[in-house]
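Dock alpha-D-glucopyranose; give full complex structure.
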Amino acid sequence: MIKKFSFGKVFPTEAVVKEIKAQKGNIPFFMQQNSDNKDGLLFTYTMEKEDKVYGLGEQIRGINKRGHLYISDCADDPVHSEEKNSLYGAHNFILVDGKERFLVFFDTPEKVIFDIGCTDIDVLSVETSKDVDCYIITGKKILDIVKEFRGLIGRSYIAPRWAFGYQQCRWSYMNEDEIREVVKNHRENNIPLDAVYMDIDYMDSYKDFTLNEEAFPKFDKFVEEMKKENIRLVPIIDAGVKIEKGYDVYEEGLEKGYFCNDKTGKPFVGAVWPGKVHFPDFLNKDARDWFGKKYKFLLDKGIEGFWNDMNEPAIFYSEDGINDAIEYVESLKGQNIDIYTFFAMKDKVLGVANSPKDYASFYHNTEEGVICHDKLHNLYGYNMTRAAGEAFEEMVPDKRILMFSRASYIGSHRNGGIWQGDNMSWWSHLLLTVKMLPSLNMCGFLYTGSDLGGFGAHATEDLVMRWIEFAIFTPLMRNHAALGTRKQEVYQFKNIEDFKNLIGIRYGLISYIYSEYMKSVLNDEMYAKPLAFVYENDVHAKEVEDQLIIGDSIMIAPIYTQNTKGRYVYLPEDMMAVKMRSLTEYDCKVLKKGHHYVDAELNELIFFIRPNHIVPMTYGGESTEEVDYTTLKVFGFVKKEAGYTLYTDDGISKNYQDKENYIDMKADKDGNVTVSNDRIKIKESVILNK
Ligand code: GLC
């Protein structure tokens, strides 16, 4: 059941797609009161010892969020360490599971502070501005509550099937030949690959919707050449538009008044990759339409996917900010600087980037009037994604275009996915992405994944391999690394054959992963679930934060520690343990409910199949185009009988509701598998029954 409580007058975020009438009074469970700061509201809830608090989407720390202070405030912060409070997305919802079970979504574009047992171990407090719509959802089961929430915020974005293949990125492949080299190395080593990303250097001087003609002289031909290799190119689009006379996007934006202005009414100037830029006013419908149509420049050249970046927005510095810092540093010249002054100077210089002062000094021209950016900050990336998503609907209505963003707010999940931003090549960040996945799924971000292998810092071979073993199960499976870091394409390492085999397993699992993703999107369900959501009455399952249920049939237990040859796994029921080295080399055995130590060498993927469940697999391929989706091999643990609904379509058009897309499969304990449609052939089955 959903109830809405409104406080003040909220800017219409359009996060919610259902019309719900607001009720009067305080929100149930919480005691609502004015905070000391009379501009805001403070909601408090006293937690029982056993209460768990889930949610917050893209955030650091655990699946259970107790014990920290989190701030919903889209932030460009690449160091995702434990003490941080904000990442790139603002997903202001929590689900309390305990003596009471409820989800609250605090819908406001302003900052929301969640103190979840940080100041007082038993107190959950949420601080918002005085204008907020609170949606409260109650229900019997956690998954029912999440489903109702997902219905409230609308259907998640659907990516094309090719975007479920393995993808390679680096900041940057500088020209056509460097990209050809990447593709050649994958193809020569038979490492499957579906896409190569084009980071900022493909542009002319980092100008959106331009090409560096020297590096990419015949771009449309090159796109075509890559497509013949079954490779899609995915260019980056940044939020800031370079200030440069004669540059059409700049000139047009200026003329039409589509950039955010400062308080004097002149376009606000910030600096990002191209140097000085203006920021498109994505909160203005006309500006949004205008920017969205600009993607046509690349669509017309055969491009079918994009990633939107720097859209918190990241601001390296503003003119005022940098001048202020320079003046301060200059004022210290020649002095014997004491330690406090030294730190103040350091803070001053580092503080020029993404400064709250800058966010408070430009404005959006919205349908609700002219509003300062700091009041709408969390909606900026959302509306950049929306600009693209809505324009794609108009320009290529029958075709899915890949779109994912860095910054996000609930609502942008309808127009694109997100990647989890600039992580590090750290083992702790491999675990972090495992924990973030279900929280993101709760608020509709299903097409997601982290930079596999880690973005910043140098990756080692074992980290990349273990990360791949997890990323096999994430819809977005993209290897990405930062400028200046060790090369991280899998062929750069020693055990290329192992990488080839592991990535090959993704292509075997692709019909299952795609099917589960599509069903989850179409039914407003979670693709990746914590054990606590599936085995609600199992006291051990409730504590497990490093295993996930993927779709309906599979449980994963990723290995995220260096120098280990296995890990402890908790099985909430008997399961079939699958240890795979390649699509043709594997061992399967049934393990009893309980705690186990499961061995897995570096090149061995482990996953588990739930009882009376099956997993349809393909015979693989070196690209998603090559995979034969009609000839399957079925893995399963069938004590009695197992049913499975396979969702399959052409992967690119939008006839999601077509009955033909759903194929029923049945397996018995003797390994016989039947299907409802003879389009699908079962060639083999690997079924255990006890
Ligand atoms: C940002 C992005 C990263 C990209 C880099 C250069 O840091 O998050 O993915 O590689 O900018 O464009």
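Observed: Residues 171, 199-200, 236, 309, 406, 421-422, 480 surround alpha-D-glucopyranose (CB under 6 Å).
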